[in-house]
Amino acid sequence: MTTPAVESVSASPGSPPPAARRRIGGAVWGALAIVYAVWGSTYLGIRVVVETMPPFLSAGVRFAVAGLLLAAFLAWRQGPAVLRVTRAQLGSAALVGLLLLLGGNGLVVLAETSVPSGLAALLVAAVPAWVVLLRTASGERPGLGAYLGVLLGLAGLAVLTLPGLSGDVRPGGVLLVLLGTVLWSVGSFSSSRIPLPRNPFTASAYEMAAGGLGCLLVGLARGEHHGFDPAAVSARSWTALAYLILFGSLIAFTAYAWLLQTAPLSLVATYAYVNPVVAVLLGALVLGEAVTWPLVLGGTVVVAGVCLIVSTERRT
After folding, report:
1. How far apart are CA 315 and CA 270, in angstroms?
2. Would you tell me the crossing angle of helices 26-49 and 235-243 to the nearest 10 degrees?
3. pLDDT tens, N- to C-terminus, the chain (316 residues)
4. Which of 24, 59, 162, 304 is buried most, with the most CB atoms less than 10 Å from its CB?
């Protein structure tokens, strides 16, 4: 990308050369499609998991297992050397993992014990707004199209979550999700500016391991293990957890980690506009949630915001 007004985040140590980062090819769109579709379904999966499992402990198991499986797969395919990182790279990966998975995802999981999955997904649409603010604060100028896209997305969010149109909004759960979006945005933004492992899949393995360990420690500190009986967990929750480990973490989070080192951050952040639409549709199909005119209108506006941001990136 050559126009200063829409310049992406600068290359970080160990990241691909700027020329490689600026080309948006088929692999990027394929990874985006995975993140769009799979992460849209994880809100439903999380909601089913926390029906009979503690929030932070279940999230910790999800990410710790996924991180270990990915590390084992990498060592098997490419040799143990692929997991070698410097102390700085390990620290950076752990920081990003804690921000994304403990702060970002963990708070959303906690919120979904009281907030419907569709509403949680809709609130996560605030992520691109925080990203644009972070880029602006760092001296970048995302461009008029990015700002307009964010405004459209937030307008759709307002329609979708306005009390009286989409039901009662629980302030506590809403605040947890919004705090999670801030931490997720900071983690995503930081990942392009600190020395992560050169191999994005290695980085993803360490991030998931750190985030999973963080979630487990928080779950234990909250006393979630007291009175918890694994035998009382429903088959439905076990199935949802397995889905989250395989598809939500191993496949989709790894694709996201690769995108953070390969594609423009403002383009990657558009997943937060598409995921809510997928989540609402799945809520209607699986849980029988009503699809009202505010959902249709808000979803249309949200997608329009995505299209505007994506078209802005493609022109650069």
Report:
1. 16
2. 160
3. 232 222 232 333 333 334 334 457 788 899 999 998 898 899 999 999 999 999 999 999 999 999 999 999 999 999 999 999 999 999 999 999 999 999 999 999 999 888 878 778 877 877 777 877 888 888 887 778 778 888 887 787 777 666 554 455 566 787 898 899 999 989 988 887 899 998 989 999 999 999 999 999 999 999 999 989 999 999 999 999 999 999 988 898 888 878 877 888 777 877 777 887 788 788 778 877 666 777 677 777 877 777 777 666 555 5
4. 59
